[in-house]
Amino acid sequence: TNFNRSVPQKFHLFTSPKCYHNPDKPISRNPRNSSVSCITAHEIPLQPLTVPEKVHCLACEFKSLPEPIDRVKRLLHYATLLPPFDESGRVEENRVKGCTTMVWLQVEMDGNRLMRYKVDSDSEITKGFCSCLIWLFDGAIPEEVLSVKTDDLAEMNVGMPSKGHSRVNTWHNILISIQKKTKNFVEVKDKDRSLTEFPPLVGSTDGFSVYGNYKEAQYMQESRQAGNEVEGPT
Predict the structure, then answer these.
(1) Which residues lie closer than 8 Å to 52 by C-beta, 6 or more apart?
(2) What is the domain class of 7-194 according to CATH?
(3) I need a labelling partner for 165 at 20 to 30 A (CA). Which of 21, 69, 145, 203 fits?
(4) Which DSSP state fits 152?
């Protein structure tokens, strides 16, 4: 699966209102207090946004649609913008648990330590939710992905009371799964890096010594053990 395509550059989620950042005002890390504003699409060109700024844009977008049916229609439109999902990714290990619909999620970290996501669902409305989350997070640094709270996206809640709760649970579960897998990737990458950057101690009859990276040290230790077994006791 190709995670290298930068979705945010091509995947312009918002049509009206659009968002822009006023460079004369400092950026607040709290999306609710951000200097990002919502305006009509033709006034100011869209500039690259951070995740908190995108969250603010998303809140503006859905807040401008007070009627549930209008929010549903907007999600159905966004569902058509969701990047294609490879059929090979529709496997049990990629399933998002706890959703009333089928949702599959693939997560990767690229060489620049940016997160890459692919997601799909058998429900068009859920695809719309997924489309919003992909726009928010794909190509972002892990710390920004993990900083988002479910309350920050409360404006995405759509639907009538009978169905609204299940829909909220769905996008909550997708968000939680995205953040959980992102956290797992960070932990694995940090562990691998620590094993490579910090040479371990290798024990021998002469004491302990520092030798290369973890794999080299492991090889040396195994070689010495094998040599001792061949030579036998002296």
Answers:
(1) 27, 28, 29, 30, 31, 34, 144, 147, 148
(2) alpha beta
(3) 145
(4) G
User: By the 8 A CB rule, do 49 and 21 touch?
Assistant: yes
Angle at 18 between CA 13 and CA 19, to 5 degrees: 105
Q: Model confidence over 52-99: pLDDT tens digits? A: 999 999 989 988 988 889 999 999 999 999 999 999 999 999 999 888
The torsion region of residue 90 among left (phi > 0), alpha (psi -120 to 50) and beta comes to beta
List the chain domain ranges.
7-194, 198-231
End-to-end CA gap in the chain: 56
pLDDT 10s digits, 37-52: 443 343 444 567 899 9
* 119 in Cβ contact with 174 (< 8 Å): yes
Q: Distance between CA atoms of 169 and 149, rounded to whole angstroms? A: 14
| Helix residue spans in 94-160 (DSSP H) | 124-137, 142-147
3-state SS, 75-98, equals: HHHHHCCCCCCCHHHCCHHHECCC
**Which amino acid, residue 61?**
E
Active centre residues (catalytic):
99
